[in-house]
Amino acid sequence: MDWTALTLSLKLAVVTLVILLPLGLVLGRWLAYTRFGGKAWIEALVVLPLVLPPTVLGYYLLVSLGANSPVGQWARQWLGLELTFNFTGLLIASLVFNVPFMVQPVQRAFEAIPRNLAEAAAVSGLSGAQTFQRVELPLIWPGVLSAMVLTFVHTLGEFGVVLMVGGSIPGETRTIAIAIYDQVQGFNLAAANHMSLVLLALSLVAVAFSFVASARLGRRA
Amino acid sequence: MTTPPVAVNELVVHVEQTLPMPLSARFRCAPGQMLALVGPSGAGKTSMLRIMAGLMRPGAGRVQVGEQLWCDTAQGVFVPPQKRHVGLVFQNYALMPHLNALDNVALALLHLPPGQRRARARHWLDHVHLSTDQQARRPAQLSGGQQQRVAVARALAREPALLLLDEPFSAVDQMSRHSLYALLAELRRGLNIPIVLVTHDLNEARLLCDQLVVMDAGQVLQQGEPASIHRAPRNARVADLVGIQNRFHGIWLGPADAPGWGLLRWTDDRNTDGSGTVLRVPDKGRLDPGQAVSWVIHGEGIHLLATPAQQADDFCASVAELRHLGEITLATLVLQLAPGATLQLTLSGPQRASLALGQRACVRLDMALVHVMPVRQLQ
Predict the structure, then answer these.
(1) What are the extents of the domains in chain B?
(2) Which residues of chain B have a CB within 8 Å of the CB of A119?
(3) In the CATH scheme, what architecture does the domain A3-220 have?
(4) Would the CB atoms of A124 and B97 count as touching at under 8 Å?
């Protein structure tokens, strides 16, 4: 059992969640509430990582973040950061491929709120922030929860993009999914089996938890 | 143009806009009075309500309650809904589904310290007669009538200077409807503020309100007391909108022998039959001879006669339809003298037994209650 890989995967999933959650709330709310020309293109862009082959997404990330790319050069010069084959690169890739998993459920949840509730809140004296906190957030909470679980589980399981952008550097970019692949390549099926079971159990528990929680919220509402 | 000064707590509204939809309305409502905006859907009633609540900015206009100026496009004043102290009861109530009745009302009381909000919310829910048990339920577990009471309590919790009700009767059953009438009557006595309601149900507006504002396609067609609008609709469209049944066609012939009276030839709906009966009716001097007109007669002006026709204002008819509904009977009479004209009568008491289908009947029309109006008013 490669505990370092598991820890790295969990760390990547948590950091991704922490960064992506506020972004997802802002973007999802904006997409749910505003109409503008070209909105369909933005929505398509949000969903794109879901339908692209991981190798394609990984390739473009590698090309655009690599040491010779403008972004890579800028990051090295001004931030002193390398953006590929390390945890930072992995994190950027993880943020990108999780956008649809975070934004879509949040957007749907905002869209499901009846329009006149915000008006009722305004007439009742609630400011925009108060309406968000006391009306919108409680109502979108099941959607947010499912977005968080999907993002978390998906980060644990993502393989192709991670391999393209991060390679397999122990403690730096070798996530559990890649560790499993390495073990299978080395004919160490017992270790692969072990780690696969852990990943399977973790994912199952997370998804089941989100269903149970949503059902409970649904009963309360 | 001078406008009368705004009285204490009086609502004054004046809106003129062409986009996004045309609206042209000007009305006032005194505190303690109930005003109904009536008209078909799409008439702009709800838009007027939203403008008063501050949920919509008018292209040009002014909304004022007493000394509080809420909106004046000329001065660039626009007070957001949060600061207006307006109570708005939404058509489908717009209660927060995740909060129970008590917390729904408490949500409108965030200006109070947290410890006092629920006690105050309970006060308002008691006020609209919602039991303690019902106060602890979420909207989904309450009936339509109960949800409406919560919505009213939430509106009152703002201690509003103006109460607005959007189609308050559309989604509640008959029983809740009657208890809602009682509640509104009670509120009106207790609150000394203007109350404006939007409805397409004219009977309800007439029953409850002191003033009607009849709207169609964004325009105010007529406003006034319900009885006066009913007795004297300004034009045929108003008569249509307020659901006057006994509406007939005719051609205005000009003044009669005495001042204040004119002559009207009763024709069919295409104004082609010139041989119709000539009636002597009240004249306000606004009509040109030869002009096609519509005319109505108030229900109080139609009398069923026990004896055959004797006077000029008596008409013979045959009973074409009888519908017995509870304590009343709706009768349709086909008049013999007037071409194509049918007369709708509501009968109650012993009169109900006096008619049978196909039977001949005679009616006397009280010409003093006839109101003549132009077919179409140009705007």
Answers:
(1) 11-237, 245-374
(2) 55, 81, 90, 94
(3) Orthogonal Bundle (1.10)
(4) no
- Asked if CATH classification 3.40.50.620 holds for the domain at B11-237, the reply, yes or no, is no
Residues 6 or more apart whose CB falls under 8 angstroms from that of B57 comprise B51, B71, B73, B78
Q: Which residues in chain A touch residue B95, judged by CB atoms under 8 angstroms apart?
A: 120
Q: Please report residues of A whose CB lies closer than 8 A to that of B55.
A: 119, 122-123
- What residues does B372 pair with on adjacent strands? B295
CB nearest to B97's CB, from A116, A130, A221: A221
Which tokens belong to A8?
A: 């790295």
**How many of the other CB atoms lie within 10 Å of CB of A148?**
20
**Contact indicator for B312, B332 with CB cutoff of 8 Å:** no
Domains of chain A, residue spans: 3-220
Contact check, Cβ <8 Å, A126/B154: no
Fold equal for B11-237 and B245-374? no
Q: Identify any residues that bridge with B346 across adjacent strands, giving them in sequence order.
A: B330
CA-to-CA distance for A170 and B46, rounded, in angstroms? 65
With CA atoms as reference, report the closest residue to B318 among B336, B293, B300, B339.
Answer: B336
The owner of tokens 């008439």 is B43
How far does CA B6 lie from the centroid of its chain?
24
Question: Is residue A185 less than 8 Å (CB to CB) from chain B?
Answer: no
> How many beta-carbon pairs under 8 angstroms link A with B?
62
Per-residue pLDDT tens digits for B258-316? 888 988 888 876 656 555 788 888 888 888 888 888 888 877 788 888 776 667 677 88
- The interface pTM score, or ipTM, of the predicted complex is 0.79
In the predicted model, is pLDDT for residue B365 greater than 90? no
Domain B245-374 fold is OB fold (Dihydrolipoamide Acetyltransferase, E2P) (2.40.50)
